[in-house]
Amino acid sequence: MYDALNQGRIDLRRLLRALTTLPLPRFADGRIVLAVDVSPWLRSDAACSPDRLFCHVYGRAKSAAQFIPGWPYSFVVALEPGRTSWTAMPDVLRLGPADDATAVTASQLRDVIDRLIACGQQQTGDPHILIVCDAGHDVTRLAWVLRDLPVEVTGRIRADRVLRVPAPPYEYHPYGGRPPKHGGEFDLKDPGSWPEPAVTTVNETASYGKADTRAWNRLHPRLTHRAAWLDHEGKLPVVEGTLIRLQVEYLPGDRDAQPLWLWWSGTGADPPDVDRIWQAYLRRFDLEHTFRLFKQTLGWTRPKLRNPRAADRWTWIMIAAHTQLRLARPLAIDLRRPWEQPSPPDRLTPARVRRGFRSLRPTSARLSHNVRSWAVKACRSRAFMAIDGRLWGEVQLHLLRS
Fold this sequence. Notes:
Keywords: Endonuclease, Hydrolase, Nuclease. By secondary structure, the protein is of the alpha+beta class.
């Protein structure tokens, strides 16, 4: 297997086309919601492995975060509505030492959206694709770079940020002067600097109690020619959006409920828009379940690989296996352990579907010799041929469903 991963190849173009053409989950209004996040493959002891970066890893205690060498991977997934641990994963990309994380993420999202448009998943007149991200991404920069695409961007921002309100109307002054570009400060830590919110909503939730939401329209950060905007030509733009403050009554586990600040690239939000944004953002945490499945159940970071390109091939194989589990979701049966509670067929988790996956091949229709030969020839990958004993059931199921 190691020889195949180190020397093999994967037809990435065909794989991306196959992943993009599969049906993606949509929310109630028919909108596709994409989440982007980074998960590291830690290789602290691989001193000879190239392209390693210091990856941020959270500790179990407060202020116990660490930076451990490894390969960070940027994942783009399509989220499902409601409480679930299922996601659809159309793309992944490894970040290199010389990469700008925001620029690479924007390019990755652009490629995914272009493929969705090319295959008909996103058409003219459809609701714009919503992209959600955490505070580690520059949400304002992403919104500006992707402004020519049918997308909306929302993300969490730090609670110590200072934004600006719109500039006041220009007033004539006898001594002249440049008209103001920014308005007054909106300090997230200082409630005295907050104007009256444009939208307020109150909702009852099952997991968090009462959810109180306030939104302010047309707020923007004051940009400078530093960091991501260092090479920007011309005047710096004013990227306006909607600021949303979410305060819940309590959190699971008796934790303190701190306010959550979100910035959305849209303006002129009404109460349904505000509720749609923060509810879609909460679904971003389903991606954490996918990372846990990859590492603990599918064995994503288990091989001791030295070459990062071999790690890329193994990562794509994990995505193919996860996609096959998602396709087998309506066919799997619940093989639960004695101490586990029964689960309805439509509520099976990815781990339970994987547990019952081996029983699908004997009960499925057998493929003809010609189809099997075509499948083998279509792979044309030494990496896949070396691991087909492990994933041959997934290949059969994919061919049966297609």
